[in-house]
Amino acid sequence: MTTRLPGSAGDGVYARKQLQSRAALVSWSHSRRFQVALELAAPARGRRILDYGCGDGSFLAMLVSSADAPLEATGAEIARDLVADCRARLAARGICFLDLAELDARQAAGFDVIFCMEVLEHVPGVDEVLHRLDRLLAPGGQLVVSVPVETGVPMLIKQAARRIAGWRGIGDYPGTESYRPSEWLPTLFAGSRPHLVRRVLVNPDGSAFHDHKGFNWMALRALLARQFVLRRVLSSPFTWLPPHLGTQAWFLLQKRGAPR
Question: In terms of CB atoms within 10 Å, which end of the chain has fewer, N or C?
Answer without folding.
Answer: C
